[in-house]
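Collaboration report, partner site 2.

Our partner group contributed sequences for two proteins of shared interest, and the home lab folded both. The records are reproduced in the order in which they were received, starting with the first partner submission.
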Amino acid sequence: MMNENLAGRCGHYCGACSIYRACEDGGELLKVMEASCPSDRSLYCRGCQAVDKNCWPYNHCRRRECLDAKGFDFCYECDEFEEGGCEEWKRLAEDHAKIGMDLRENLLFIKSEGIEKWLEIQDKKWRCPSCGKPISEEEKCYQCGGQLRQGSH
């Protein structure tokens, strides 16, 4: 059974999140992410479905705040999604498109096929072609050092 906590409410695959991967895998990526963590927070994440007040991203996710206020689990439940999404979600979707993650497609798949099937596909997609270990949205695999993409996102 896949970890349903990795199904981001906005369509993001948390298994490829740099913060989540750093917490799970440790090593060099953990050091990189700890350096960017606000001094009043601890680097801690178990995935967007398990977010709590101890999680570093908790206090800066506007989509989570919006969904909680509306009583929704995912952005696709909102009327604005059908109309193209809210401005906050659109900005996020544009940024994720640069790393090969289509948030709209992801949400529509989750809605029609379910979380479990989507997570299986994402788990296979977000693996290093060199070593086969899970990767983040970074340009390199922090497990083997292999280059994943050119340029920055």
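Second partner submission, folded after the first:
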Amino acid sequence: MIILSNLVPKSQSPNFLGMAFQLIFLIIIFIVVIFLAYYSTKFIAGAKLKNMTKKNMKIIETISIGFNHLHIIQVNNQYFLISSSKEGIRMLAEIDGKDLTLVDNQSVSLPFEKYLKQYFDNIKTKNKKGGKYEE
């Protein structure tokens, strides 16, 4: 309040129109910052995804078990099961490619999309299943 009182002379009261323009300006700045954050995050994620997909090596699947992670990686036509933790990375086994069920990443929908679709289907049919997921 001290700063505002120094900006506005004592004889004048702050006008409503000026305050409205300041509010609109701050809202526009806020929206611009949100859009910049969104698109910069999307750009960084795309660049990271582009760096992770190589011709000879690919991470097929990853699962977290506590602080440890298990990865199935493909190197050319060979598949390996490795573990990674804060102690380091270890190769656990070589896996036969015939034993794996490979799924194209583009055809896989996110689990949230399945939940959302089921929720809307439940609303349409008025058949509530208690929010449980069924495939």
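Feedback sent to the partner group on the second submission included the following. The chain has three domains: 1-53, 55-97, 103-135. The chain has a mean pLDDT of 79.
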